[in-house]
Design brief:
Elements (H helix, E strand, L loop, with lengths): L3 H7 L7 E2 L10 H14 L6 H19 L6 E4 L2 H12 L6 E5 L4 H4 L10 E5 L8 H5 L6 E7 L11 H11 L4 E5 L16 E5 L11 E4 L46 H17 L1 H21 L16 E5 L3 H10 L2 E2 L1 E3 L2 E5 L6 H15 L1
Parallel strand pairs: 1-10, 3-4, 3-5, 5-6, 6-7
Antiparallel strand pairs: 2-8, 7-8, 9-12, 11-12
Helix pairs in contact: 2-8, 3-8, 9-11, 10-11
Length: about 375
């Protein structure tokens, strides 16, 4: 992954193109392709394949537990981050009189469940300043009525990485009743995580962790099981789904296990396990050491071109995302594509994502393409 030779073996589809869009869709390694084939082999066995499916899910749970420094009982899987956040909303059951804090750098999945609740809590918005979230702005939003503070460790919008420790300490001091929930979708598999003491950790599986669509990792420590057990209906997360009393009461499993409400998406679990195992075989630290300097070169190259990134660069809080605004995004992207340079462009914004499989040539070609586009 970290050099040209191993990249072509593990990611043959990258040959001849400069793919800098992992924040939207990552490129899975060959091991994930093989895992998908294994799923189909097991599925073709009919009911006999269920034993293999469940064994794969437990192996995936163990892999996630290692990466997130959790017990296997503290890890669960659902279909996407949107489902996970709606289940979190069900668990908290907030209403009038309660307060929720979200940021304007968060993905909609983490913010909208609190806006659509029947008995809506008061939602306070932590607004960024020049692409960064300032703690002094958060301070005035926190009270003893704050029941949830929802953030992304790395923003999908601009790549800003939240300094976790001072943020956590401030919330615990001023909002002692608040659940700390963090979306690590744009960090998982790419940066070393410093937020593992959060009350709820959620991540999609088709981005930096190199899995497929249709999966989501949820981690909830045992100390929070009573408070963070969902009230949703279903069957897979219920202890008595086929018991004699099943039409009288539903006995929901506690904590993380309650977030797996229905039949697991086994194809996504096979892919996720392979993606996580691949990332661990390389090492997140090595990936960051390889990719962070390349992301810094993008920041510096944009400055030379007179372009200001949407988020400030910090040596202490690095991420794989660099984003900027431009009035002619469509034209710029069209020129980049002619040289097989792939970035994300949307609503006047270009987002560059640098992963471990990116090389110096990718950054050089990106900056050369931008120079040509601006000229």
């Amino acid at each position: 992954m970290l050099d040209e030779q191993s990249r072509l073996v593990d990611f043959p589809s990258l040959e001849g193109r400069h793919y800098l869009n992992s924040a939207a869709e990552s490129i899975p390694p060959q091991t994930v392709h093989e895992a998908a084939k294994t799923y189909w082999q097991h599925k073709s066995m009919g009911m006999a394949g269920r034993e293999y499916h469940n064994a794969e899910m437990e192996a995936c749970r163990e892999s996630a537990a290692r990466m997130l420094d959790k017990k296997t009982s503290e890890i669960s899987f659902c279909s996407c981050s949107s489902e996970a956040y709606n289940l979190l909303a069900s668990a908290l059951a907030l209403g009038a009189g309660d307060e929720v804090v979200v940021s304007d750098l968060d993905f909609p999945a983490g913010a909208t469940p609190w806006l659509t609740a029947t008995a809506r809590p008061e939602v306070k918005l932590w607004e960024n300043r020049n692409g960064a979230l300032e703690l002094e702005d958060l301070e005035g939003l926190l009270t003893e009525r704050t029941q949830l503070v929802q953030v992304s460790l790395v923003s999908f919008l601009n790549g800003y990485r939240l300094p976790w420790a001072p943020f956590r300490d401030l919330v615990k001091k001023l909002a002692p009743n608040a659940v700390l929930s963090v979306d690590i979708t744009q960090a998982f598999g790419r940066v070393e995580l410093d937020c593992l003491d959060a009350d709820c950790i959620i991540s999609s599986t088709h981005k930096w962790i190199l899995g497929s669509h249709g999966g989501c990792v949820v981690a909830i420590p045992e100390s929070k099981t009573e408070r963070l057990t969902t009230h949703a209906g279903g069957w897979f997360h219920i202890d008595n789904p086929f018991g004699a009393d099943r039409f009288v009461q539903a006995e929901i499993k506690q904590g993380a296990a309650s977030f797996a409400v229905g039949m697991p998406n086994y194809p996504a679990i096979y892919a996720l396990r392979a993606g996580m195992d691949y990332i661990q075989s390389v090492g997140v630290t090595k990936i960051a050491q390889h990719a962070d300097p390349l992301a810094l070169q993008v920041h510096e190259g944009l400055a030379v071109l007179g372009i200001k990134p949407m988020a400030p660069y910090s040596s202490d809080c690095r991420s794989g995302i660099v984003a900027f605004m431009h009035e002619k995004v469509e034209a710029v992207n069209e020129i980049l594509l002619k040289d097989n340079i792939h970035v994300m462009h949307h609503a006047g914004r270009i987002r560059v994502a640098v992963h471990g499989y990116n090389q110096q040539e990718d950054v050089d070609c990106l900056l050369a393409g931008l120079r040509a586009a601006l000229a």
